[in-house]
DNA sequence: GACGATACGGAAGCTCGATTCCGTTTGTCA
DNA sequence: TGACAAACGGAATCGAGCTTCCGTATCGTC
């Protein structure tokens, strides 16, 4: 996933620094502008030339994938938090609410989710088993406690989260918790 | 909205025929492939040259807008049906269910909805007051009967429908009614 | 402090799709 | 049926972005 975790000699100091700058700039840019930020914008924000981006990431998509992996890891962490909640239903509520909050601020993530089909069918591109597993655990626990609609599995849940992302997209600030509430109410047994 | 409803001389017979063919081909194409169908595909399906499309519609966007207007009109008709339902809540249910069904089959419409901000803020481009008004009536009636969450107005409802569209997007066939149910349950007082 | 390997910047190239243009064809009207 | 306007087809043009390339600058090592 990350470039060369193994053998070849370590990056030169300036290269390491630039790689980080590119990633940071790209993160901000994609969170704000989604897929239609341009490579040149990112380069400008990072204070490097486009060529430098390509030295570190073979394509725009590879760069996005790297960020996506980060976002998924964050999500997995959030799910892990939610699992710490003693009450199974509270766990679900917490996770959905937080997800809504995150998605309001991250257009790139919303778009990635819109692509779900592609993203999740083919596990080659972005590793997300961790997120997948944690969410499954969260839902299983709620099912076992009989507080979550039994016909909602991970896939259905994911689709609903995509929906939430969409609803949240062009929405007056603050309203996003309303959508989270509607979905939560709909999910409860 | 439609090209020149008024003064200039009527279209020649072949032109009229071609215009219809283009529109029909475009409808099918956009329903299936959304915004990324290409003008040339449409031309091919319609059995005309690209030039002919441009004789009738100044840009690709104009063509999409024309179809969008049709889709909105359909939606308004569905909302009108729903208003005929004697029970206010049944009306909402009917409308949401049917909308879900329609959206599963129409990628173009889903994408248009994804753009909601643009589409509805600026009423210059596509006329949709009719849909807007009918849905407002539907919701008002349900509010008055006390069966619909009072904090859900047209805008919130629209956002939720967008969400539904998204959820429905990469979904196993048949599952879309599940999402409609979840949202409906969440909407009910 | 000199040399080779690495990395950099950003102009040029390439691809893909929308849109334009114009020589040719077809419909309409007398 | 002939003349003219209207419409057609589709090759050529144009623009937008991603990606490549290469001359120059920097790093790390001896």
TrEMBL record, chains A, B:
Alphabetized UniProt keyword annotations: DNA-binding, Transcription, Transcription regulation
One Pfam family in the UniProt entry: TetR_N
Keyword DNA-binding: yes
DNA-binding region: 38-57
Coiled coil location: none
Secretion signal span: none
Name recorded for this polypeptide: TetR/AcrR family transcriptional regulator
Organism placement in taxonomy: Bacteria, Bacillati, Actinomycetota, Actinomycetes, Streptosporangiales
Domain of life, source organism: Bacteria
Domain HTH tetR-type: 16-75
């Amino acid at each position: 996933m990350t470039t060369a975790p193994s053998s070849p000699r370590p990056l030169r100091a300036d290269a390491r620094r630039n790689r980080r700058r590119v990633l940071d700039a790209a993160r901000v840019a994609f969170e704000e502008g989604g897929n239609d930020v341009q490579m040149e914008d990112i380069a400008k924000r990072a204070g490097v030339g486009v060529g430098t981006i390509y030295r570190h990431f073979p394509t725009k998509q590879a760069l996005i994938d790297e960020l996506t992996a980060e976002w998924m890891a964050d999500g997995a962490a959030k799910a892990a938090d939610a699992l710490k909640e003693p009450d199974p239903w509270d766990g679900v509520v917490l996770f959905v609410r937080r997800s809504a909050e995150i998605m309001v601020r991250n257009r790139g993530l919303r778009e990635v989710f819109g692509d779900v089909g592609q993203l999740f069918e083919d596990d080659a591109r972005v590793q997300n088993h961790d997120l997948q597993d944690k969410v499954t655990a969260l839902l299983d626990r709620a099912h076992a406690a009989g507080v979550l609609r039994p016909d909602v599995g991970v896939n259905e849940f994911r689709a609903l989260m995509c929906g939430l992302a969409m609803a949240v997209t062009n929405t007056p600030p603050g309203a996003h918790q309303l959508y989270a509430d509607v979905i939560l109410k709909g999910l409860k047994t």
